[in-house]
Specification:
Elements (H helix, E strand, L loop, with lengths): L4 E6 L2 E6 L10 H18 L12 H12 L12 E2 L10 E12 L5 E11 L4 E2 L1 H12 L2 E2 L1 H15 L4 E10 H4 L10 E7 L16
Parallel strand pairs: 4-7
Antiparallel strand pairs: 1-2, 3-6, 4-5, 5-8, 8-9
Length: 212
Amino acid sequence: MVCKGRLARVGSLRLNFIYGRRCGCVLKESRLKARAEGGVKELLEYLGEDVSRPGVVNTPRRFVKAMEELTRGLREPPPEVVFFPLEYEAEVGPVVIENIGAVSVCEHHLLPIILRISVAYVPGNGIPGLSKVIKLVKWAAARPIMQERFTEWIADLLMEKLRAKAVYVKVCGVHMCSFIRGAKDEHHSMTTEAKRGEINVRLRCKRPLSCR
């Protein structure tokens, strides 16, 4: 079986960031990790860095470890959601959880996206545990994303995993690819929304990195 992967090209370099252990890769994980670290070392050399310098000699290992952490959602299964019974027959109105902090990676530049995610949902049969909802949102964000597509996907994910009747998601992101390069605008933020079903609630979403 061919291992599906996400390729990032830097000059003549090809770094293969795999989806994880679920696919039947012929190469062992340790070999792939060594190749990834070697690719980072070559990238540093391409950029003009002295890779034997004490300050960066372990940078390839640290970088790969950091990318593993930032993209853990590609390899780890989603958190299991625990449900609690309603215990009465009246319908529960929208449940609102605002300003969940999360970090994603821009799929175009592999630079961080600092996120605040607010969600509202109308429960179906059973009430999902609060902490599990937050963990599910953070897990979903831990991968390379395009924010517009991510917002639509997480709305579908929450509908399924929360067994919800309706879902509303609002995502506010500060993209480092526009913050530190390109437009170099430290004041920007991007807001996207997605709804599934009938839900009437107003969501607030605080700008990430805001001092207020």
